[in-house]
Structure prediction request, 80 residues.
Amino acid sequence: MERNEIKERVNKVIAQVLKMDGGQIAEEHSFAADLGAESVQSVELMAGFEEEFEIEMDEDEALEVQTVSGAIDFIATQIS
Prediction:
């Protein structure tokens, strides 16, 4: 799967969980500082990524991911 497709699907999950327009999401955005995600939403994001990409993410490693680009890169390594 190409990085651009991963990015589109990551943005879709973020938009659903954080109830925002996907067009407002940039790769450099931090989930907490820029997008306003609270800790419970971080867990919801992880669950959303697992469902969207049909992967199992290590919770500790996944919660260390703080940015959209970090999530894209992390998921890319999980599905390759």
In short: The chain has a mean pLDDT of 94. Residues 18 and 37 are 7 Å apart (CA to CA). The chain is about 60% helix and 0% strand.
